[in-house]
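Structure ticket #2291
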Amino acid sequence: MIEDPPDFTGLRERLAELRDPTGLLEEIFAGAPVGLQIYAPDGRCVLVNPAHTALFGGVPPPEYNVFKDNILVERGVADLVRRAFAGERIKIPAIWYDIRDLHDIEATKVSGGRRVAVAAQLVPLRDSKNVVAHVLFVFHDQTAEMLAREQAEAAAAAAETRAAQASFLADASRVLSSSLDFDVTLAQVARLATPALADFCIVDLVNEDGSFRRVAAAHASPERQAILDELRRQFPAHPGSPQPAARVIASGQPELLPEVDARVLLEHTQNEEHRQLMQRLDVRSHLAVPLQLGDRTLGAISLGFVGTRRYSLADVALVEALASRAAVAIDNAHLYRAAEAARADAEAASLAKDEFLAMLGHELRNPLAPMVTALELTRARDGASRERTIIERQVDHLRRLVDDLLDVARITRGALELDRRALDLIEAVTDGVELARPIVDQRRHRLVVAVPPGLIVFGDRVRLAQVVANLVTNAARYSESGGDIWISATRVDREISLRVRDTGAGISAELLPRVFETFTRGSRAIDRAAGGLGIGLAIVKSLTTLHGGRAIARSEGQGQGSELEIVLPALDVSAPARQARTAAEPISAAPRLGLVLIVDDNVDAAELLGDVLAVHGFEVVTTYDPYEALALAKARRPSIALVDLGLPGMDGYALAAELRAEPTLADLVLVAVTGYGQRSDRERTTAAGFREHLVKPIKIDQLLPVLETLLTR
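Resolution: structure written out below.
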C-alpha cells in the first residue's frame, strides 16, 4: 500500500534557517547508530554510512545492482525495493545472511562473524517535485537477539528430545521387565521402536552354539512387514555374513550408515535376490548396535529409515541405552531360566527322594510287621526271655530308623503336623529320656537330668520328646562307653533353653556349621560303631524350627565333648493357652468282639496278625488274595476288614470300592494297613472309604483299642 508522502515543508524551512544544514545532515547520516544505505532507481548503491560498513564488513562494489542480486531476488527483497521506489514504506523482518554469499560486499572481514541477522526498513526519498528519487535502507542488527532466540529454541527442542527419549526408555524398561520371556518382550520393544526410533526394527540374538536367531522384526508399515518377514525367512544373519547385525556382533561396535545407496547395499547383502528385497524395503539410513553385557555380546538391534529421516552420531547413544537395557533383561531371563531349570531338577530329585523314602519305609515295614506281631505273640504265650528281649530291642531300633526316614520326607515336603498345647517341658524330657534309655544303658553312660518343672512351652509333646531322644541318642552314640551326659534347662526372659552336654568325641570346626544338616556325619572313629543315618540332628533342627525355636551346636573340638542346645519360645502361663486338639473318646471297657477279615499278600504277616487277634478273643478269617477276600466278605459278612493296600492284581483301593458297592456289606468297617504313612496317603484312604489308616509294623497295643472303638460305635 502506497502511503501519502509526508509533508516536510516545515522541516525544510527550519533547515534553511540553519547556518550549515548540509553539514548537519551529513553528520546525522555518518553518525547514525544503524546501517544506512541509499539506492538509485536503477538499482545502484549511491551511499552507505559507517554503521552499514561495520555491520556487513565492507561496501558494495561499483558494479553492484540490487535488482540483479540473485540472493535478494530469491528472497523477494528486489521486488520489495521496486515497491519502495513506487512510494511504499516497507518493513523486512530479520533475515539471516552469510556474508560470504553477499555480492554487494567487497571486504570479507566481518566484526560479528560470518552470519548476521538483519531487519530492514525501506524508506522512499522524494525530491522537490515529490518524486521518489532514492530509497533509503535502514538496517537493524538482530544477530544477538536471533542467536538468543535460536539457542532458546534449540535448548527447548533438546529438552523435548531428551524427555521423549527418557519416556521411550522408560516405556522400553517397563516392557522388558514385564516378563521373563525375552522373545515376547523383545518383540514388544521392536514394535515400540517403530516409528519412534525407526521405520523398522530387527533384533537378533546369539545362541549358545554361536549361531544367530532373529527374535523380532517389526515394520511401521503393514505392507512392508511382509518384506521383513521374507528377509527373516530367506536371508537371516549368520556369523560371517555381510549384514550389519552380523558385523556388529562380531566387532562389538555400533555401525552407522547415514546414507544407504546402491554401493552400500552391494556391500551389505548376500546376493542379488537379497539386494532386490532390500531395495523393495527401500531402506535409506541404517543403524546397528550390539547387545552387550560386560565383555559378552548377546546379539544386535538393527534400525532403519525408509523416508527422509537419517541417523546421525547423536542417535547412537540412545540406541545403545536401549540395547543396554535389553541386554540386562536378556541376561536376567537367562539366569531365571537356568535357576528355574535347576529348581525343577532339584524338585524332581527331592520328589524322587521322598518317593524313595516312602517306598523304602513301606518295604521295610512289610517285613517288620510280622516280626513285631510274632514277638508279641510269643511273649503272650511263653513269657519274656533274654534272647527275645534283645530281638525286640533291635526290631524297635529298626522301626525308629524307618520312622526317622519318613519324618525327614514329611518335614521336607511340609507335611508334618504338630499337635501343640501348653506343655511342661519336663514331660517331653521324661518321655524323650525313656525313648533313649536303651542306648544309654547299653553303653553304660551316666545320665544326669536337671530340668525343673514349670518351664511351659506351646508344643507337641510327642515331637519334643523325639527331639530330646535324638539329642540324648546322639550324645550316647558319640561317647565312649561309661561317659557322662547332662540334660539341663533354664528360662531366660521369654525363651526356654534346653541343653544336652556330653564328654564324647566332640565336633570339628569344619563340621560344626553343618551338624544339623540332613545326612551329615562326622569322620569320628566310632561313627560306624555308633550307627545312625545322619538324620537325627536334622530332625531336631526341623522340629525345633516348627516350634518357632532354633538349634545351636557348640564344641571345643575333637575329643572335647559337645553341647547341643534348643531354644524355644516360653509360654506365659498367665495367658490362656491356645485350644488343643480334642482328645479321642475313651475306649469302651467291654468291647463287643466280632469277625475280622485280614487281607494281606504277606503270608507271615497275615497269619501272625490273625493268631494275635484270635488270642485276644476275635474271630478271624485270613486270605492273601483280593478276589478271594471279596468272596469271603460276601459269604461271612465280617464286622471289620483289615486290608493291605499293596495287593497284587487288585490293590486295596479297588478292593475297598468293590466291598463298598456290595449292599450286604453296608456295615463293614474298612481299615487300611500299609507301609505308607504320609499325609497324602491318609487323605487318599479316607477318600476311598477307610475308617482308619494303620502304618506297619502294627503294635498290638495300638491295634486293639482301634478295633474295640470301631466295634462299639
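Closing remark: The chain is about 45% helix and 20% strand.
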